[in-house]
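Ticket opened by: R.M.
Priority: normal
Category: complex prediction / small molecule

The reporter submitted a protein together with flavin-adenine dinucleotide and asked that the result be attached to this ticket for the collaborator who will pick it up next week. Submitted input follows.
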Amino acid sequence: MSVAVLIEQRGGEVTRPALEALTLARSLGSPVAVWLGDAPSADAVAQLGEYGATEVRVASVGDGARLPAQAAAAIAAATADTSVLIVISTFVTKEIVTRLAVLTGAGVVVDAAGAELVEGKVETFQTVFAATWNVRTRIDAERAIVGIRPNTTQASPADQPGAATVVDVAVELPETRERVTHVEPVAQQDGVPLSEAPVVVSGGRGTGGDYTLVSELAELLGGAVGASRDATDEGWISHEHMVGQTGTTVTPALYVACGISGAVHHRGGMQASGTIVSINMDPDAPIFEISDFGVVGSLFDVIPQAIERIKAHRGA
Ligand SMILES: Cc1cc2nc3c(=O)[nH]c(=O)nc-3n(C[C@H](O)[C@H](O)[C@H](O)COP(=O)(O)OP(=O)(O)OC[C@H]3O[C@@H](n4cnc5c(N)ncnc54)[C@H](O)[C@@H]3O)c2cc1C
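Result attached by the on-call engineer:
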């Protein structure tokens, strides 16, 4: 199967989700990497080769990478000979791939948790409707596009890594009515972005506005800090930290909910996480219904003990 992966990059560096996508792509075939924007550095090319890319197809489209119509045209040119395209599911890529599907007649699934080949066709799996349904989808079209959620594949280098060849792709960009006039990245919280973090430790109203312990635990676990909407509405923490239906959807390997009741609006944004651990004083809190591990108690008692045990375990 000929597989292409749209490489997500940040400041010229390949992101961890992009390496996850390449890892997944290797289970479907021999992947080529598609790189939009300025030419990749030698380090980036070497890393893509290490994760199994045989080629890095570079479409130097400048700001076109930010304009969905132009990005779709560039990807179409770079993937004309491939039958499967994997992208990381984000707001931006979802718009790009829907346009790409119109251009190429591909079948599209976004927000997938995984994909595999069954009788020569791509099948994806994912949870939908706030993780209340498991869905498997078969893409019957000749070309398939899969948008994959971060943290659903463990990124690992190829068993037999090779050197990826850089190939320039000629692209005729369509005229668009939009122009990019100014780009200013939103300030990220320290560490990994919430949507990509492998571990998220979230605090809700139960924190009373004190995020010291939640932040300490997140840092110890190498994760990001999340929050409920009540906490962000109180102004205890900025809105970029909000997890849920109107906040960020997260799918970390580990989600720790501290002092969060588990309202449906919050669950919708975290229920597909790998392992869910909850700390709540109320044994009847709805968050326990979806938790793998629950601790009934005050987060101010439980988190310090967890921190102590984790440190002791690491020191042992
Ligand atoms: C249209 C709409 C969209 C929404 N979108 C979102 C969204 O995207 N994300 C979101 O989070 N919410 C969203 N909400 C709000 C949501 O319905 C809940 O109101 C919110 O999630 C509750 O936040 P919470 O769990 O922090 O607070 P609460 O529901 O008040 O729960 C606090 C919990 O903390 C526990 N607690 C108290 N003290 C402690 C302690 N010391 N230690 C341990 N536990 C303690 C309590 O037992 C309780 O269970 C939305 C609401 C609407 C109407």
